[in-house]
Amino acid sequence: MTSPAPLVVSAHHVGDDPDWWRRAVVYQVYPRSFADSDGDGIGDIPGLTSRLDHLDELGVDVVWLSPVYRSPQDDNGYDISDYQDIDPLFGSLEDLDALIEGLHARGMRLVMDLVVNHTSDEHPWFTASRSSTDNPRRDWYIWRPARQVDGLAPGQPGTEPTNWGSAFSGSAWAWDEGTQEFYLHLFSPKQPDLNWENPQMRCAIHEMMTWWLDRGVDGFRMDVINLISKTYPLTDAPQGEGDLYGNAFAAVANGPRIHEFLHEMNQQVLAPRPGHVITVGEMPGATSAEAALYTDPARGELDMVFQFEHVSLTDGPGGKFDPQPLELVTLKQNLAHWQAALAPDTTPNGVVSAEKGWNSAYWDNHDQPRAVSRFGDDDPAWRVRSAKTLATILHTHRGTPYIYQGEELGMANTVFRSIDDYRDLESVNHFHERVRAGDDPAAVLTGLAPISRDNARTPVHWDGSEKAGFTTGEPWIALAPDHGTVHAAAQVGVPGSVFEHYRSLITLRHNDDALALGTFRLLAADHPTAWVILRQWLSPEPDETGENRVEQLLLIAQCAREDLPLTGQGGLMAALAAEGLEPEEWAEAEQVLRAGDPDVQPGSGHAGLPAVLAGWDSVLLRRRA
């Protein structure tokens, strides 16, 4: 193994102090859709390395790389057959070393996706496990005998050990003919679940993580990590009327040994490292109370979690593919609830005294549709401004912001005309399962289109050419139809673009204490279109007058097409006064950033409270005392 390239601290990015990650901004790369270097239509590691200057200009501090390990690609790389090799589809270990070197030379870091709830069924561990019932690795996975059912032979449908359904449709159990038992797979049958009760298996995971850290990786994003501790014995789950399978979530999520397993991982792998290793755990269904435990620094588990509440608010009676309208009030109050749950301790006068937990802030990722289509307005007349306003809202929340590739360009959902346009295993399986159950195919497609994961997986638009600068070949999934107009070449360095707005927000986060570390308060919580946030930072040490320096940031965002009056009779500021915000204190405040006016930038000299915010406009104000 080569010696890892050292991090070169850059003034353009966060440094190397112990809390660097609290000011950092993370950028997710879904490699097969980012940049293709060899013309096969699939993005790869050399393609990513060739675009590092784009990320450096944007100012992001950490690149989270979705799986590039060796894999049969049943679930686009989340089915891993070798944890310590790179799939030839994406390059080689030497290519990854070059990526790490390129990132570190620019002052950026690399986070790898850690997928350890399950492996591929082609992983050598599972090959050994299924080879015989007495193989030493048999217990590295979760095996159970068939249920005895009169008239049914073991292995037939209906003899599964429990009634659990898989997240990717069908039963969560697959029959192994060779050893005459079922194995558990909460996702695809080609993704058997690991048995975390086995200490030898856990040790192998720890050794693999250490191997990657020794190679220069700076942290891990842990895929569905709250599913690794199951509740035993495994029994049937509640099954609703009309449901094909039981819902096993309560039996597999946030289980009785989850904190033990994560603390052990922290102590064995992360804590001994000389610098801070950033960690984020993807945790579907985790509550704010559970997240407070996972991210409490005193417990030594994780830095932060990805929770799913705000991206599940549109789920209808039929689940995520039965999307329902979402009221803004519901969305902003949900995110404010998470802010309160993970808020820091403060002194009586408001100085942050201790961190108790930490949020991650995101609108979209490789598993969610595009933010501007879901939470903003992707009509061409409103796309740019709503994308910038959504960015400002997200980055004004307390916690580490995550940007998904193309989000910094305002990329929107794509257009699907038939099931043949989809590549996502979850979407395709859902379609066929519902059609087999008798649902109208057109209605199923209508539910899929706005929410499918494939919306986020179309290639990044680098320029306005036929293949969008992504590839010289045929893209593995069709480009979004707006690639000729929405692309990086038209935005980088162009005032007023979505990219430049993101760049300003990231720079502000690096340098502004109130935005990075200050307390959070949601105002006008019941207003149907306005999103108002107050951030406040008091310096820990008094100044020469004996007072703590105070900085406040006030975000006012209009999340609708109509104008929002701020001043005068009936204006929003009058309503905010009832919540203790003094309008006169903000009358001459500095305008830091505005979605609708590219001339408003930090230090540009603009001041004063606008009388009106136009549709989808937002303004970030700052005052110091």
Describe it.
The chain has 625 residues and is of the alpha/beta class. Helix content is 24%, strand content 15%. The strands form 6 sheets. It has an 8-stranded parallel beta sheet with strand order 11-10-9-5-2-1-15-14. Strands 16-17-18-22-20 form a 5-stranded antiparallel beta sheet. It has a 3-stranded antiparallel beta sheet with strand order 6-8-7, with no helix packed on it. Strand 7 (173-176) and strand 8 form a beta hairpin. It is globular, with a radius of gyration of 25 Å.
Note the main attributes of this structure:
single chain, alpha/beta, 8-stranded parallel beta sheet, 5-stranded antiparallel beta sheet, 17 helices, 24% helix, globular
